[in-house]
Amino acid sequence: MLNAALIGLGYWGKNLARNLAADKDINLHTICDMNIELTKKNAEKYATVARVTDDYDAVIRDPSIDAIVIATPIATHFDLAKKALEAKKHVFVEKPLASSALECDALIEISDRNKLVLMVGHVFEFNSAVIKVKELIDSGEIGEVLYINGQRLNLGRVQTNLNALWSLAPHDISITNLWLQAEPNAVSARGFSYLTNGVEDVVFVTLEYPGNISVSLTLSWLDPRKSRLMTVVGTDKMVVYDDVSLDGKISIHDKGIENLSKFLKEPESFSEFHHKIRNGDVLFPNFNFIEPLAVECAHFAECILNNRTPRTDGRNGRNVVKVLEAAQKSLKNQGERITLA
After folding, report:
1. What is the CATH code for 2-122?
2. Pairing of strands 2-7, 90-94
3. H/E segment holding residue 132
4. What distance lies between CA 19 and its chain's CA centroid?
5. What residues does 217 pair with on adjacent strands?
6. Which top CATH class is 125-291+324-332?
7. Which residues 6+ apart lie within 8 Å of 316 measured at CB?
8. Rounded CA gap, 9 and 232, in Å?
């Protein structure tokens, strides 16, 4: 078994601790957190934990620890991951991987040089509903993708040291990169601060992908309803992915414009085309849903034990951070369109 140390037992760290402790290939050896008393109290829930500490340097010096799992504030990701990689530990970092693409590059270089696994916590790439939507896109069932609309909204978990872009958008960017098997060419973003000056709690992002595919994201923690909704509009059908739904996470809508693919290539008169609307059935496909975080933790262990590259490796993490950086620049420049290299 792998001996793993978890750094940070906060909001998301508790979920990681539960799944790490339950994984058959992982021994949750140590939990490290600055709040030592609260950590000792919470760590009692995980019977396999050998020790609790607030000394991170002691953790990375420990030769019995094989892997470090980092679930701390974003500003700390780079320094903690760099120290762990330099100490020859495999590293898992919660999203986003770091605060800049340059920091991501540095972590990738160290992990490559030391032949270590570096993985980022893009948990939705391990979500069976997200994977099912990718299969629908790849199979051509919905035709060519025209655009994607995403909503990630909630009332609560307001953050004052991090805006809604960096907190929420990594999920949707990683999902759309996966679905489209591409990275955006350009990004623009507008944001508004209502609760904390200078911290945008409502953000609107537009991503432009190759093939004239647009993606629009609405991100907020100031909304009356929790929404984790993504709609994929294709030339033949449309797919809705509703992550908060208990019994219908994916619905396939046989709706659209008749012969749209043909029309886009060989336009007729718009007046004739305008009336060719199709309203067909709605299908809810079956698929086996397993807790994505459990699948993610198992994948991390498997990659270490079998010397494999993670599905969400350092380069995957860098691709998302690069978009976040560009979107942040657009925010500061009142929605300026930023081209990505």
Report:
1. 3.40.50.720
2. unpaired
3. helix 128-139
4. 18
5. 150, 205
6. alpha beta
7. 120, 122, 125, 174, 177, 310
8. 36
In this structure, how many other beta carbons lie within 10 angstroms of the beta carbon of residue 135? Answer: 11
37-to-9, 42, 292, 328 alpha-carbon distances in Å: 12, 9, 30, 37
> Looking at this protein, which amino acid is placed at residue 129?
A
DSSP state at residue 298: H
Does this model's pTM top 0.90? My answer is: yes
Mean pLDDT of 111-135: 98
Closest CA to 175 of 230, 224, 109: 230
Partners of 108 in beta bridges: none
- Which residues are paired to 234 by β-bridges? 145
Mean pLDDT computed over 172-176 = 98
Query: How far is the C-alpha of 339 from the C-alpha of 328, rounded, in Å?
Result: 13
Share of the chain above pLDDT 90, in %: 82
How far is the C-alpha of 33 from the C-alpha of 264, rounded, in Å? 56
The domains of the chain are located at 2-122, 125-291+324-332
